[in-house]
Amino acid sequence: MIDINLLRENPDAIKASQRARGGDEALVHQAVSADELWRRELLAFETLRAEQNASAKLVGAASKEDRPALIEAGKLLADKVKQASEAADAAKTALDAIVWQIENVVIEGVPTGGEENFVVVKEVGTKPNFDFEARDHVALGELLDIIDIERGTKISGSRFYFLKGWGARLELAMMNMALDYAAKNDFTALITPTLVRPEVMAGTGFLNQHADEIYYLPADDLYLTGTSEVALAGYHRDEIIDLSEGPLRYAGWSTCYRREAGSAGRDTRGILRVHQFNKLEMFSYIDPVDSEAEHAKLLAFQEAMLQACELPYRVIDTAAGDLGSSAARKFDAEAWVPTQDQYRELTSTSNCTTFQARRLNVRFRNAEGKTQTAATLNGTLATTRWLVAILENHQQADGSVRIPEALRPYLGGQEVISPKVSAK
RNA sequence: GGAAGCGUGCCGGAGCGGCCGAACGGAACAGUCUUGAAAACUGUCGUCGUUAAUAGCGACCGUGGGUUCAAAUCCCACCGCUUCCUCCA
Fold this sequence. Notes:
Blueprint: H1 4-9, H2 11-21, H3 26-61, H4 67-99, E1 119-124, H5 137-143, E2 147-148, H6 149-156, E3 162-163, H7 166-184, E4 188-191, E5 195-196, H8 198-203, E6 216-217, E7 222-224, H9 229-234, E8 240-241, E9 248-257, E10 276-286, H10 291-308, E11 313-317, E12 329-337, E13 342-351, H11 355-360, E14 363-365, E15 371-373, E16 375-383, H12 386-393, E17 401-402, E18 416-417
Parallel strand pairs: 4-9, 8-14
Antiparallel strand pairs: 1-11, 2-3, 5-7, 6-7, 9-10, 10-16, 11-12, 12-13, 13-16, 14-15, 17-18
The structure holds one RNA strand.
């Protein structure tokens, strides 16, 4: 949710942002007048209410003879108050309905335009140059007996899979490496619930545009989360957190569930786009003035992990029109996938500034001791999808896959996964 | 799944129709005293909205409804927690 004060003081800034996103500019007008109306109605109600409070106090103090008359007067007032209160509530509801549709104000410098208008920030690493015919991760997975898609499909349907032997261990190794790295950098590890109540899902903003992306369990009225961000953002909901010692940083590990409703037919091969995967997510609560520096930091952490996995990648600055409604800026890191001859997203980091925290009512006490809305940021540190890039980039002519050095300590020193040496 | 009880401010804990935004205790913060600290004493000490305003006014005692001139206090529903029984990964 945007800052209502910004709406009052500088509606043009919000308009400009909406324009950059290709969003609805008219909403800003509507919000301003809805706000004015609400404040008028509120004042009318509060004035009447004050009168009523005073009158009710009189009744308590009045003598027996005076009471009936006062009570009669009170009844009249009560009626008016009720009406005024309903009018004020309605005005507030109308205001909220509009304000909630306005998306986060994009940060200056974010490229304008839609999905294809991203700006490449950098390219890092060298793409592999195979002198043999490269296998894709599905072929490698089968050959090495580490990804079993056929049986995944047999028991759960399309977009499901088993990770097996070294495949399973590789994923856990990657997660552990990421978690170690995060812990060294001041992130507190958190294993989060993956079933959440409707309020939490709505509060984090996922129930709007992404509603059909989400698994829902009607018998229990619970939603399966598509990312631990939901739980991590909700963690400090309605709290006044202490940021005096610096930001609060969490590394949340969870299984993620996505219906992939809008992507039928896309990336159907392999484990690039699946209904269930694991993810380690960074999440920061921070003073808004430091949010951009923190954003750079999260991106740097992601790059460090990609480099540890020895993956060629590029970083893109997502265009305004392709940002989620909570994000004020988003960087994606995309790894090279040789058999697709293109970069594919492995990580994403968003600076949500105060937008998400305002919605979830997460505040902190600033230097003056006043409460202020915190900023939140999130970023991927590792996901199952990374296996695709690791397997494909590090494959060798015989179908074996070299394990990046940094991962070996987490795999008992194993250096190569080869067809003959699959684990038990 | 069955039974009972409970949800009040940073914490503990009173209040059970008007005098309650809320006693009392603790914590915290500031000051006095002290070479300094502790102790003692004094003061401050919830959040939000409206507003130029730390003035006033309004809202909030789990959440949402209701009764009443008036609700933290009564009624209803929901959510959560605790204990006991049952059951157990």
